[in-house]
Design brief:
This protein is mainly alpha-helical. It is built from 19 helices and 11 strands. The chain folds into 2 domains: about 240 residues, Rossmann fold, CATH 3.40.50.620; about 140 residues, no CATH class.
């Protein structure tokens, strides 16, 4: 049977790194096996779901390079791809479960249930439904339903232990009696998450479900439902949750950065995908930085992470820097150029191209653009007095230089000559080079000077020094 996996976000906010890690894992597995990746919108929480977030999530995923084979916008043979539009299938499955004795109407109102929950909490025990409505006869239940009395539909949970065959963790045992009778349909007729998910996974022929370990209890319930529906369950693989610095699950409600925010911060898509892959499927030592193709080739369900995975900004920065180092200079120059255009800085392709190799040492594209802007734009203030001597020496060397931008190797040779001439005149590099940088860029630190020199023409350099061109 061909592999079919799904990424099923709830449209309650933009895509964040924790959810993106799940999407990346499903994408890599689908591509590794030649299977299909389905986008399904799990909008059973009608009170919180917003249609506008569907497009945001899909756009963010596509920016990351994650292409779906089926989904709400793409279509496909197993639609609809919004759970809210699959109500007929949910209702049909619910009727079948009740007819076969796996479910029963529950007339308990929320006040009674909440009182029972509080009593359980006060007693220090986990709450499970006491099965009160299970004692009603089918005739009595039908009579009350016919009279219009509100009722949910509850599943008769197995009292035996449930064993989850996890692709990475092996057999995970859920103890007998740990799951009480749970709701399948709310009193208003809408399907709950676990019921809709189980029914839709079966109807959409999902073969594998890859998600966070916080879904383990959901998996137990979904296995019960699928067994009662006489459907073959998918293979499950649970990876470690992504935690924040305080050890809490990284979620939208806890302030997790969205993919859009990371993009705005200058992290390239390749780096975010790579970092997400490190979290869900740690690679062998020495293979942490990899392309999407390499990540796909190395992905394995057996290597899904099982330990705690914490968001580490420093590691993300390192991965991002490594990807920038690997970018073709022309590609990096184009990306930096687009960022500068958004800042109103346009028309400097030659300077950016000259800077490109040096910009690859930045952690993010925003850092690279900041450095490029410092070089391209003239300093707001004239250079310090101590810089003048060094810059005069630099101008002397530049006088013989052609009116064009230098290649980095030419600029490096010019810089070497400058060091030598400075030593001859009693100006050591530790004094010459900082003065030179301050004069040319107005900053004390930045990329290697050879790239700065390559990106500034002679006349521009002299103008920044407040000198006339002696040529």
């Amino acid at each position: 049977m061909a592999v079919r996996v799904r990424f099923a976000p709830s449209p309650t906010g933009p895509l964040h790194l924790g959810s993106a890690a799940t999407a990346v894992a499903n994408y890599l597995f689908a591509r590794r096996t030649g299977g299909a990746l389905i986008l399904r919108i799990d909008d059973t929480d009608a009170a919180r779901a917003e249609r506008r977030f569907e497009g945001v999530i899909e756009q963010d995923a596509e920016w990351l390079g994650l292409r779906f084979d089926e989904g709400p916008r793409i279509g496909g043979a197993h639609g609809p791809y919004r759970q809210s539009e699959r109500g007929e299938g949910h209702a049909s499955a619910a009727r079948g479960l009740r007819a076969r004795g796996h479910a029963y109407p529950c007339f308990c109102d929320e006040e009674r249930l909440e009182s029972a929950r509080r009593a359980a909490a006060d007693a220090g025990r986990a709450w499970r439904y006491d099965g009160g409505c299970d004692a009603l006869s089918a005739v009595e239940a039908d009579r009350r339903l016919a009279a219009g009395e509100p009722a949910s539909l509850r599943f008769r949970a197995s009292r035996a232990a449930i064993v989850i065959d996890d692709a990475a963790r092996g057999a995970v045992r859920v103890p007998a009696g740990s799951v009480g009778d749970f709701v399948l349909l709310r009193s208003g007729g809408g399907a709950t998450y676990n019921f809709a998910t189980a029914v839709d996974d079966a109807a959409m022929q999902i073969t594998h479900v890859i998600r966070g370990e916080d879904h383990m209890s959901n998996t137990a319930r979904q296995l019960m439902i699928l067994e009662a529906l006489e459907q073959r369950p998918p293979r499950y693989g649970h990876c470690a949750l992504l935690l924040d610095a305080d050890g809490n699950k990284l979620t939208k409600s806890r302030g997790a950065e969205s993919i859009a925010e990371l993009r705005k911060g200058g992290y390239p898509a390749e780096a975010i995908v790579n970092y997400a892959a490190l979290l869900v499927c740690p690679p062998p030592a020495g293979e942490e930085v990899a392309s999407l193709d390499a990540l796909t080739a190395g992905f394995s369900l057996a290597r899904l992470s099982s330990g705690a995975a914490r968001f580490d900004r420093a590691r993300l920065d390192w991965v991002s820097q490594e990807h920038l180092k690997r970018l073709d200079p022309a590609d990096l120059a184009a990306r930096v150029g687009r960022l500068l255009e958004l800042r109103g800085i346009a028309g400097y392709p030659a300077q950016i191209a000259a800077l490109a190799q040096g910009l690859r040492g930045a952690h993010t594209l925003v850092e690279a653009a900041d450095e490029a802007e410092r070089v391209i734009r003239r300093p707001a203030t004239p250079p310090p007095p101590e810089s003048v001597g060094a810059l005069a020496l630099f101008a002397e060397l530049r006088r013989a230089r052609p009116e064009r931008f230098l290649e980095p190797a030419e600029a490096a040779a010019l810089l070497a000559e400058l060091r030598e001439r400075g030593m001859e005149q009693g100006l050591p590099p530790r004094e010459l080079l900082p003065a030179l940088r301050r004069g040319l860029t107005g900053a004390d630190h930045g990329i290697a000077l050879q790239y700065v020199i390559a990106a500034i023409e002679r006349k521009d350099a002299l103008a920044r020094c407040g000198m006339m061109d002696p040529a």
